[in-house]
Amino acid sequence: MAALLFQIQSVISKRFRPLLLATGASLLLFFSIASSTSAFFPPKDPGFQPDPEARQVFTETYQQLKQGQLLDLSEVLNQLQHYPLAPYLEYQLFRNQIAYRLVDKDQLTAFLKRHPDTAFESRLKQEWLDYLASQESWESFYALTGSEPLQTSRLECHRLQAEAELHGRSLSWLEAAADFWRQHQPLPSACDPFSQSLKDLGFLNSEDYWQVALQLMRDEETSSAWELRQHLEDEQRQFLDYWRRGRLNPANRLQSVLNGHTASLKLFPELQQEVLNDLLVQHARTHPSQTRQFSQQLADQELITSSTYYNVLETLALRAAWRSAENTLSYFAEVPSEQRSAEGKEWYARTHLRLGNWSRLDSAIHALPEEIQQANEWRYWLAQALIKTDQQSAARELLQSLAKKRNYYGFLAAQELGKPPRMNASPAPLMAKDMAALTDQPGILRAGELFFTGFHEDARREWHYNLSGASSATWQQAAWLAQQWGWYDRSINAIHNAGHQDALELRFPLAHIDALQPLAEEAGLDLALVLALIRKESLFNPEARSSVGALGLMQVMPATGNQVSRQLQLTMHPERDLLNPQYNLPVGVHYLSQLMQRYQNDIILAAAAYNAGPSRANAWQTRLGKNTDPQWVEQITFAETRDYVKSVLAFREVYAWRLEQESRLQLASDTPNQPEG
Predict the structure, then answer these.
(1) 477-515 burial by CB neighbour count: b if 16+ within 10 A, else e?
(2) pLDDT tens digit sequence for 545-577
C-alpha cells in the first residue's frame, strides 16, 4: 500500500496546486486538507504495504494459474501471508481444480467460509455449484444455497432440482417451480429435468406451453417457441407453424390470406390481427411497396382493422424516413396524427427538418409529446423554425435558454448568439472523512493492487463489488481515488454514479496527455478533438473491446491497425498490441489524421467515418451534400453515428476549455513572483 499512497499523494499535490489557482478561495479548505496526507488516508498498516518482491511473486504465480496450471501454493502463500491479494491465488487454483474435476470439496468449502462476501467468492461459488450440479451432488449443492432463489436461471433450476431431490416435490415446490418456469422463458437446457418433472406431475399443461410459445413469438424468439411444439395441442401446433412459416416467407402467407386461405388463422381469431400485423411489419423490412399493396388489399377486404392498417403504414413511413426516401411524407400523410406513435411523430418532425419545411416543422414539434418537446434537440430546432418564419424574438429567447447548457445544442445556441460556450463546471470536493473511510476498505485496496499489477478484469470486479450500494459521497471520493491511480474509465463511471455531472476535471480527464500532444501536433490534429474521440470511444479504458472487435483507447479495428501500422513502419500484432496505448494511440491518431485529410478537415465527416466507416460517410456525403452543418448531422441515417458525431463535437468543446484552463494554470504556476516596487 505504501507505493500506492506515494503515487496518490504526489498526484494530489501536483493536481491541487493549479486547481487552487483556478477556483480561488473556495478551494483553500480542500487544498489544506489535501496537503495533509494523514487526513485522507488511514495510518499505514504493515499488512497492506506490498513490496516490489511480493508483487512480482504474486504476479508471476497468478499468471501461471490463469493459464490453467495446478501449482503447489504452500511456499508462495507462506511468503505472501501479509499480501492483500494472496487469496486470489487460492481462488484461481480452486477454479482450475474445478475445471479439471480434481477439487477437494472440504478445502474449497473451507476457503469459501474464510472469505465470505468478497468479489471472488461469488464467482467461485457459482462455478462450484455448476460442478456439483453436473455431479448431481445435491446435498452439497443445497448446503451452499439453501432455499433462497439464485441469480441466474441456470443455477435456480439446479437449486429447484436439488430441493426436489432432498425434500421431495411438495405442492408448494410444484407451484413455485411452475411459476418460475412460466416467468423465465426461454430457459437453458440445465432446466430440462425439472421442466420434465413439472410436465409429468401435471403442473404444466398445453395451455401453459401455448402461452409461453406465444410470448416467445412476440419476443421474436421463434426457434425457442418452436421447440415447445411437442407439448401443444394439434390446433395450437398448426397455428404456431403457420406463424413461423409466415415469418420465413411473409409475402407467400399474405397472398394466401388475400386468396381466401384463412383456415389456420381462424383457429385462433383473437390472434388474427396480431399475426397479420407481424407478417406485414416483417415484410416491410425488405419490400415496402409490396407491403403497402398488401395492407391496402387486406384493409379493403376487412381482414385487418384500421388500427393494424395505420400501424403498418407508420412502419413504412418510419422506414422511409430512416432512408430519407422521397415518399416519406406521403406515407405519413396517410396516418392520422392521433394514430401516430411518439416515434412516428418524432420522425415526422425530423423529415420536415430534413426538407427544410420550417413552418410545418414548427407545428410538428408542437404535436410531439411534452417530454420530447422539451428535449434540447427539439427546442433548438424549434428556435431555428422560428427564425426561418420571422419570429426572431421567440427564437432568441429559446436560444438564450439553451446557451446556458453544457451540451451539443447548448454549444450551437451559444455560437449562434455569439457567446462563449457555458461549461458550468463545479469542482467535486475531496472529503477527508469519506476518503479515509474509502481507503480503509480492504476490498478497495485489493482493487487498487489488482489494477497496478495489471489484472484489470479482477480489479474492476473488486471495485464494483465493494462500491455496490455506495452513497453519492463515497462514489465521489472513489472518482478521485481512481483518477489518481490513472484508472480513468472507473473514475468517470464513479463520478457519474455520484450524480456530479459538473465535475469536469473528473468527467473529462486529460489522460495520456504527454503521449497525445506530440502525436496530435505531428499529425496536424486538434488535441481537443483527439481527447474527445477517445472519451467517446472508450472512456480512456485501454482494454476496451467493442462488440464488432474494435480495440483499445481509440477503438481501432485490427484490420485498420494492421494497415496503419505498416504505413507507420510499426511492428505490431494488432489483436494484442492495440490494447497497449503505446501502439493504439499512434495508430488511432494517424488513422484519424488520414480521415481529416480525406474530408478536407471536416470534423463531422471524419467523425462519421471513424464510427461507421468511410464508405457510409461517402454515401451520406453523396446523398446529403458535401457541405456539412447541424442540419446535415440530423440526417445521418444511423442513430448511433448521429449521436456519436454530436457527442464528439460537444466533447471537443469541453476539452478545448479544459486544455485552455490547464494552460493558464500552468502559466500561472510557472510565472515567478515579481518584486514589489
Answers:
(1) bbbbbbbbbebbbbbbbbbbbbebeebbbbbbbbbbeee
(2) 999 999 999 999 999 999 999 999 999 999 999
Q: What is the DSSP letter of 24?
A: G
Who contacts 101 (Cβ-Cβ below 8 Å, separation ≥6)? 131
Q: Any long-range contacts for 144-151 (C-beta under 8 Å, 24+ apart)?
A: 144/109, 144/112
Q: What is the DSSP letter of 73?
A: -
Q: pLDDT band for position 51 (50/70/90)?
A: confident
Q: Give the span between the Cα atoms of 563 and 550, in whole angstroms.
A: 14
Interacting residues of 328 by C-beta distance below 8 A, sequence separation 6+: 317, 320, 321, 351
Residue in the structure block whose three cell numbers are 456539412: 628
Which one, of 67, 45, 77, 59, lies nearest residue 452 by Cα? 59
Rg for the chain, CA atoms, rounded: 31
Residue predicted with more confidence, 50 or 566: 566
Grid coordinates representing 300?
Answer: 379493403
Q: Taking the model in full, what pTM does it have?
A: 0.87
Triad 613, 618, 620: Cα angle to 5°? 100
* 334-375 per-position pLDDT tens digit: 999 999 999 999 999 999 999 999 999 999 999 999 999 999
User: Do you find a cis peptide bond into 336, omega within 30 degrees of 0?
Assistant: no
Q: Residue 131: which of 109, 149, 164, 163 has the closest Cα? A: 109
Write out the three cell numbers for 17: 496546486
Angstrom distances, CA of residue 52 to CA of 92, 128, 450, 667: 22, 33, 14, 37
DSSP state of 675: P
How far apart (Å, rounded) are the C-alpha atoms in residues 292 and 435? 63
Residue in the block written with cell 436461471 = 153
Residues labelled as active-site residues: 537
Helical packing angle, 272-284 and 250-258, nearest 10°: 130
Q: Distance between CA 624 and CA 324 in Å, rounded? A: 9
Whole-angstrom distance, CA of residue 538 vs CA of residue 17: 29
Q: Between these two residues, 21 and 566, which has the higher pLDDT value?
A: 566
* DSSP assignment of 493-547: HHHHHHT-TT-HHHHS--TTHHHHHHHHHHHT--HHHHHHHHHHHHTT-TT-B-T
Residue 9 has pLDDT above 90, yes or no: no
DSSP per-residue codes, 391-453: -HHHHHHHHHHHTTSSSHHHHHHHHHHT-PPP---------HHHHHHHHT-HHHHHHHHHHHT
Grid coordinates standing for 130? 455448476
Find the farthest-apart pair of alpha carbons in the chain and give their distance in angstroms, rounded: 103
Inter-CA distances, 112 with 126, 320, 578, 588, Å: 11, 58, 37, 44
Q: Among 324, 322, 345, which residue's Cα sits nearest to residue 332?
A: 345
Cα–Cα–Cα angle for 79, 84, 88, rounded to 5 degrees: 85
Place of cell 474527445: 532
Q: Model confidence at 117, in pLDDT bands (50, 70, 90)? A: confident
DSSP-assigned beta bridge partners for residue 545: 551
DSSP 674: P
What are all long-range contacts of 288-294, with beta carbons under 8 Å and residues at least 24 apart?
Answer: 288/316, 288/319, 288/320, 290/251, 291/316, 292/316, 294/251, 294/254, 294/255, 294/258
CA distances 91 to 98, 128, 142, 384, Å, are: 11, 11, 21, 61
